[in-house]
Amino acid sequence: MDWTEGYNNSVAYTMGYHHEQSPTYLNACLAMQRVSPPSIEKFNYCELGFGQSLTSLILAATHPQGDFYACDFNPLHVLAAASVRDEAKLPNLTLLENSFGELAQGAVELPIFDYITMHGIISWISDETRAQIVQFLKRYLKPGGVVQVSYNAMPGLAQVLPLQRLLMRGAAKGGDAWSGALELATKLADLDALHFKRNPDSLARVQGFPGLDPSYLVHEYLHEKWTPFFFADIARELADAKLSFAGSARFPHMAPVGWLTNAQRQLLDAVTDPIEAEELRDYFSNRAFRSDIFVRGKAALSDIRLREQAEHIHLWRNPSVSFKPVAELEHATVTRGGPYHQPLFDRLHRSEMTLAELFDAPEVAGVDMDGVLKLVRLSIAVGETSFRYGAVQTRASADRLNAVLLSRAEQGAKWNALASPRPGGGAGVGTLDLLMMASLHEKADRKKALSKDMDELTARVTRSLAAVGMQLRVGDVEVAPGDITRRMGHIFEDSGKTLIAHATELGFWAAQKAATR
């Protein structure tokens, strides 16, 4: 049998961080959906199918109290991840090069896990391999343990199934796989194939492909097995490992949701089976991707236990997002009426506080705990509020990892996040910001370097842009190669101090003491 088992490994997977796999993030999600989470004082964690392992690297760096295991059957992925791990000195991360079948059969000595996570992988593997994952969960997840699984979903991808088949047909014609796939799909769309006229989602994807990373597109579409699942089918499979659905890992979809119409809500309220109700919600939102949390032994939180858990959930306002009375979600628009949304936003703007403190805050007086949870979940969903479960961990390992990630970014690696101790995971960062931060990282006084070392900073970023193959653009205009250094000087002058403050706020590097005269 081909060792890839139908999975396309012709190019390395993209270097993405997925916050929904963070154990502290999952604990907060569970508590805010009234499900008891595991302890994070000391825990074991496993990621199945880690790709470039940025997620497990960041999580190991920001959770030094956890023992992390990450498995991928692609030896290139394991080699690349091990190189970063070793340079960053992360002793709590074990990398495994094994198939899911080998793991399910006990070929590797492993502990019993508190958390097992999978991003996207089940959509691209065979039924047999998926069954091996269920066997692995049976064998290695402890009672009370948490499984996070994300996957392509129905009914949102109903239009895309025939497009994926078309892309595979184009890729099979030889040469560069993605070029062939895109050429065939574009040709049919340009020739007014009725499929694209009657399926606008499919057409929009084809039109958007040229602006996306080909490596991502290969891993998203060019697999022999490409299956979007209905939620109930996944829930039924995981029930074989004694797993119960505990809720969504995505705040816009946590139940009860606030975006349904009154008629839609009445229909769902009459559905007694929670699995059926969850799948029906997918029809109302036309969901194309799900990120779900399952637990082995679902223990509901009473009001008393919820208050205990709320002591561990810290909330603060995202300073870069302003309050909007009309909240735009990925699938719905929510008008925030009533007297509580704006006061909640203003209260979190003043200082960080725990969810338990918020329950008793005068701004939400008269609102029961479930009502406060609903307010907070919506505020998080629209990006106004950040959160963390548990205390901030020591930052030494996060600082070491970030130093390695910044250095490698200058050599051409395209990370999309850095380790951020305050939320206990990673935070997104753009490529240009990453390169500017790399040039400033080792400066004893970063603000002073913006004037004292400007020539060095701009020259360094100019070299890095060439290394990553990035064309600098200002607005919609590409900057001529000979003008990049000068324009980078303007960018540093205009936004350098803001970038330093933003990176310090997110904990990408330690705050520097003000220089003394």
How would you describe what is shown here?
The protein has 517 residues and is α/β, with parallel strands linked by helices. The protein has helices at 23-31, 54-62, 75-88, 100-104, 127-140, 160-171, 177-190, 194-198, 200-208, 214-221, 231-239, 262-269, 274-285, 303-310, 341-350, 355-359, 369-381, 396-410, 431-440, 446-452, 454-468, 484-506, and strands at 43-48, 66-71, 93-96, 113-119, 141-152, 244-248, 289-295, 313-317, 326-328, 333-335, 353-354, 385-389, 417-420, 425-428, 473-474, 477-478. It starts with 22 loop residues before the first helix and ends in an 11-residue tail after the last helix. Mean pLDDT is 91; it is low at 6-13.
Q: What keywords describe this structure?
A:
517 residues, alpha/beta, Rossmann fold, 4 domains, seven-stranded mixed beta sheet, three-stranded antiparallel beta sheet, 22 helices, 45% helix, globular
